[in-house]
Structures are given as structure tokens and as C-alpha cells.
């Protein structure tokens, strides 16, 4: 079963393809992640807003927050905390850059 697989780092995108202040959705093995570049530091979270499942990778970024493109719920990119509804955070994941490739740990 997929959920029994050991956790490891998975390639997500080229580090040079995501400029500071940008975000995008990435699919890795059937799972969707929102990937962000905040001042040269990469961050990853689940791509689905808990409100209506809109892709957070397509959201508007301001400072360290992303706003859901559907209804504007606001999330802290570094922690996944939901500013709009504190009881509905999204999960974040460790990220590293290896040989110019952004990798997400899950």
C-alpha cells in the first residue's frame, strides 16, 4: 500500500524554475503539493485548501502568506497555519535542494 511506503525526499521541480515570490502546484506520484519560493527559501504544503479544495499553488502570495484563489483563505506558507480559520491548517513538508532540484520529503 502507498501509505506504508517509507518516507523519503522526492524531486519536485528545478530550483531555477521557481523565482522568489512565486508558487505553483506540483504532482508527485499522484499527490498534489503547493511549492513556494520565499526569498530563495523553498517551502511545500498540501495543495488543497481545506475550505473548497482549491489549489493553493495558484494562490496570491504576499510576504509569507498565500491566499486561496477561490475564496481568499489565508495561510502562512512556512507553517501551514490558516489565518482565516485557525482550526483548518494545511500540512507542510520538509524541503531541500539537491543538485539544483527542489525535493519534498513525504
Key structural traits:
single chain, 106 residues, mainly beta, Rieske Iron-sulfur Protein, four-stranded antiparallel beta sheet, three-stranded antiparallel beta sheet
Description of the structure:
- With 106 residues, the protein is an all-beta fold.
- It has a single domain (19-93), classed as Rieske [2Fe-2S] iron-sulphur domain (Rieske Iron-sulfur Protein, 3-layer Sandwich), CATH 2.102.10.10.
- The chain has strands spanning 9-14, 23-28, 31-38, 41-46, 60-62, 65-67, 74-76, 92-93, 95-98, 101-105.
- The strands form three sheets. Strands 2-3-4-8 form a four-stranded antiparallel sheet, with no helix packed on it. Strands 1-10-9 form a three-stranded antiparallel sheet, with no helix packed on it. Strands 5-6-7 form a three-stranded antiparallel sheet, with no helix packed on it.
Amino acid at each position: 500500500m502507498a501509505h506504508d511506503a517509507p518516507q523519503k525526499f522526492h524531486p519536485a521541480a528545478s530550483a531555477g524554475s521557481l523565482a522568489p515570490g512565486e508558487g505553483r502546484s506540483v504532482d508527485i506520484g499522484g499527490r498534489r503539493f503547493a511549492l513556494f519560493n520565499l526569498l530563495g527559501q523553498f517551502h511545500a504544503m498540501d495543495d488543497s485548501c481545506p475550505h473548497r479544495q482549491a489549489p493553493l499553488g495558484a494562490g496570491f502570495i504576499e510576504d509569507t502568506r498565500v491566499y486561496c484563489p477561490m475564496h481568499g483563505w489565508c495561510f502562512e506558507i512556512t507553517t501551514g497555519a490558516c489565518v482565516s480559520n485557525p482550526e483548518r491548517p494545511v500540512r507542510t513538508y520538509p524541503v531541500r535542494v539537491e543538485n539544483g532540484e527542489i525535493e519534498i520529503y513525504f
